[in-house]
Amino acid sequence: MKLSLEIKKYSFLLLLVALTACNQTVKKENKEKSSRVEHLPYYADASFTPHWLEPGSQEEKEFHKIPDYRLVDQLGDTITPETFKDQIYITDFFFTTCPGICLKMTGNMQKVQEAFIDDPEVALLSHSVTPSIDSVAVLNTYAKKNGIINEKWHLVTGDKQEIYDLGRNHYFVENDLGIPKDINDFLHTENFLLVDKNRHIRGIYNGLNRASIAQLITDVKSLKKE
Fold first, then answer.
1. Residue 143 has pLDDT above 60, yes or no
2. Which residues are annotated as a binding site for Cu cation?
3. Residue ranges for the binding site?
4. Are residues 32 and 63 in the same domain?
């Protein structure tokens, strides 16, 4: 009988220890979740210095935004900021004849497309940096070849000056900070940009890196909650 009581006491102590450890783990997980930033940062220049603004504030309304533009996608439809009204979008710069990194970038953008395939709040936008080559017909062929969903992912062509100005002076996609360039200098970058519903840049990601793409997908989900 005495031995039985000792066994019961020992079992109770083991249960108590297990419950305490479990409780501490839950507290730690909750603490880690609550320690994440409440809002994604905002970006306004090529240095990509984060600005911590309150969404909806006057400061946020006056902050850097992607300006108006007018381009044409793979279906021949006109694409403007109004196309992405009430949508978050991810953007990059590519060209269809690129033999190197563009194929991997397209593959990673496909992963983003798949992650939000049924989400009307999320869209994708890829700018051709060789618009004289990448006509509507060429972009359409590229879209079909790469499983691009037309309503979800827009491949755009248009005026070269406008595309390069957007990339360099508004999306700040190139890494060579401080080096002066003009229209004759080729624009090519592996960066993806995350843009919110108010045309603010909220993230920059390496389009060749799987971990960076995973972070992009996580950040899109966070941005949807704002």
1. yes
2. 98, 102, 188
3. 98, 102, 188
4. no
